[in-house]
Design a protein that fits this description.
- This protein has helices spanning 9-18, 61-73, 114-131, 144-154, 160-177, 180-183, 220-231, 242-255, 260-286, 299-311; strands at residues 24-29, 37-43, 46-52, 91-93, 96-102, 187-190, 199-202, 205-209, 216-219.
- It is α+β, with helices and mostly antiparallel strands.
- The strands form three sheets. The protein has a five-stranded antiparallel beta sheet with strand order 1-2-3-5-4, with helices on one face.
- Helix 3 (114-131) runs parallel beside helix 8 (242-255) and helix 5 runs antiparallel to helix 9.
- The longest helix is centred in the C-terminal third of the chain and has 27 residues, at 260-286.
- The two termini are 37 Å apart.
- Bound molecules: adenosine-5'-diphosphate and the ligand N[C@@H](CCOP(=O)(O)O)C(=O)O.
- Residues 1-2, 30, 32-36, 38, 49, 79, 101, 103-104, 197-198, 208, 210-211, 213 line the site of adenosine-5'-diphosphate.
Amino acid sequence: MAVFTEVPPEEARALLQRLQLGELLALQGIAGGIENTNYFVTCSEGEFVLTLFERLRAEQLPFYLYLMQHLAQGGLPVPDPRADAQGNIVHSVCGKPAALVNRLPGKSQLAPGPQHCAAMGQTLARLHLVGRSFDRQQPNLRGLAWWNETVPVVLPYLGPQQAELLRSELAYQNAVAASADYAALPRGPVHADLFRDNVLFEGETLTGCFDFYFAGVDTWLFDLAVCLNDWCIDWATGAHHAARAQALLGAYEAERALTPAERALLPALLRAGALRFWLSRLWDFHLPREAALLTPHDPTHFERVLRERIAHPLQL
Ligand SMILES: Nc1ncnc2c1ncn2[C@@H]1O[C@H](COP(=O)(O)OP(=O)(O)O)[C@@H](O)[C@H]1O
Ligand SMILES: N[C@@H](CCOP(=O)(O)O)C(=O)O
């Protein structure tokens, strides 16, 4: 994690009191994640996760928190935010906007096999389908507009070959986004960061998906591409892993078949998914923030994934 803000026990006790969750038994900073401050909270009413939002504004939070509530009510294994007696699910802790959600069981599977990938594909398709009846709107704030703003910020830190790749990929993605096939892609709420470390398993059963704080309305295909780029590659080289990808895509399509436009644009959106995380990792690496427990992610990994996706476009 990151603990950007140290939460004194009395602040946690005050929140538990407002939410009628009983006595604080333990408060433990979490070493995982890079965006927000997270603590495991144990109290007489159970186990929870307290998140203090460090970069997001309070007005952005209802979209994420109500989306989680909607998906949880739709039967998906996602955290359900706790409300106070007035029904508020955005709280304030240490002067920061905060949420308290149930702690999901299980552990991340960082070396998933085809069965785990199939479970991920099935859950992702269900998430998309249940999300259709969610009526709030918020764009993916790490989408094309953000890429266009961020490329000039990170370019000065790059060597000539990296800079050329970044510029040419951005131009390519702007052209893709202007195409008729792209306009035809089905859209809805997407998680947009469903990496292995944001998913929990017990054995081969998927028991949790969390960290919805990059969610937004975007193409379902982008969400699928983000998953494939993390779950279904050779993690050392960034190369496509056919068996895991077939498992993930097959299980996804058993719930929702891809449209012709989606099949046509999957190679382009795999590149988009790699560009998005190369950019955010470059930003975090070269323009880091202070935090008590923060391990920045390696940007060169997604440069490799992007080069792989360009050199070997996926044929469905
Ligand atoms: N609802 C949850 N249930 C169980 N563990 C959680 C939950 N939310 C967060 N975690 C744990 O906290 C860690 C950091 O959370 P994450 O949302 O990834 O942080 P960040 O928003 O900073 O990226 C995760 O790796 C996981 O171990
Ligand atoms: N998954 C992203 C970064 C976002 O971190 P998370 O801990 O919030 O998932 C990456 O790997 O770059």
